[in-house]
Amino acid sequence: MTEDRQPALPQRLGAELIGTAFLLIAVVGSGIAAQRLSSTDLGLELLENSIATGLGLALIILTFGPISGAHLNPVVTLTAVLRGRMPWSLAFPYVSIQVAGALVGTVVANLMFGLPATTISTHLRDGPAIWLAELVATFGLIVVVYLIGDRQQLGVTAAAVGAYIAAAYWFTSSTSFANPAVTVARMFSDTFAGIAPTSAPAFVLAQLLGTAVAVALLRFLATERSSAQPGT
Question: How far apart are the first and last CA of the chain?
Answer without folding.
Answer: 32
